[in-house]
Amino acid sequence: MIDQAARIFEGLSSFGQMDVQTVLVRLGLMAAGFLLIYLSAKNILDPMVLMPMGLAMILVNGATLTIEGKLANLFVDPMLVEPDQIVNSMQILFLQPIYNLMFSNGLIACFVFMGIGVVTPLDYLIARPLTSLLIAIGSELGSILTFPIAVAFGFNYREAAAIAIVGGADGPMVLFTSLELAKNLFVPISVVAYVYLSVTYAIYPYMIKLLIPKRLHGIKMDLRSIPKVSSRQKLMFAVLAAAALSILFPVASPLFASFFIGVMVKEADLPRYQKFLDEVMLTGSSFFLGFVLGALFSFYIVTDPRVLLIMVLGLIAIVLSGVGGIVAGLIAYKLSHGKINPLIGIAGVSCVPTTAKVAQKCALAANKQAIILPFAMGPNVAGVITTAIIAGIYVGLLR
Amino acid sequence: MESLHALIYALGIYGLSLLVTLFVWLVIVGIRRLSAEPIDSRPPAIK
After folding, report:
1. Is the separation of the CB atoms in A198 and A349 below 8 Å?
2. Mean pLDDT of the A304-326 span
């Protein structure tokens, strides 16, 4: 009777087949899933990615059953490498086809980038390129300094680079770099990255309060000082930058192609493609990104002790990049004799458009008339480019 | 020792990325110079 009940309610009985530590990790992940949903529902974290991720984390760790004598689930198995195994699993695991089609080759990152390209304004970047790019390169501090820290923690160079790029705060870039350099750590690095990208909303305002004197928060910037940039110039920039960067970094060319084709579609004013890339591609990719990443975060992957280390290093990377961006913003404020609001420095951390919105939110909290979002978008977009450059160099050198 | 080597390696990558970033800046400046529609940096007249 008990045997039959155990076979019927496998999710429950599977707890009995695990050691105490694994049970705790499994329950902890389910609790983390509930927490993600709660924080997303409160809009503290980004609900677009993290709400489906939270649900998938609960379900994948709850719905554990035995397949061929091993504990597994019917969602996805990212550890399969043999073609036969993959084909067989596609007939059983319902997210496996999406994982193999879109995740194991980085296609999902490209789809997200196409969508980001089509909603990204380039005006301030082209009007004030040096300011935007230098703030952005300052905001890459985490992508650089986390590398030796990760090596000190025992990761090899390839793994350290994949972890360090979390500091670029650019989801697609993190996916791409970890797929190219540390496929074995793809799942934990990607999940940690996406959680932290959302956490920037929560962490960065406190860092701004801590590091930038309050009297500077509300500095007004003159919108009329942004020179007019024509669509033709932006289109030319998209085409030339994509060509030049792809020649320099062929390994990162899928990402450059994806981002700049989005920009091109926007600036060439092709409304049907714009709608497709924004409403269909970006929305659909964000949904599957959250859901599949959550499903990848099952207890038998997370019991790898290095996951905790990756979480610590990811946080270090995000914080260091924030510090770098703020310092670059303060330097820009000084050099412009007070005309540039230093808050735009945080937007150099290229989580488009989250960090630019954080800068705007903090400015408005200090001064209701301080509109800095159009200015913050310059370093924000430049940050995408600098992160792609650093990812391209890491991948090119270490692949 | 390995961390120190990694730090120097990372700083080298930072330097290289700075150079490439300056190249991107040159591309933008080039576009602005070559463009038939130069950027009008003057603020619009207030009517």
Report:
1. no
2. 90
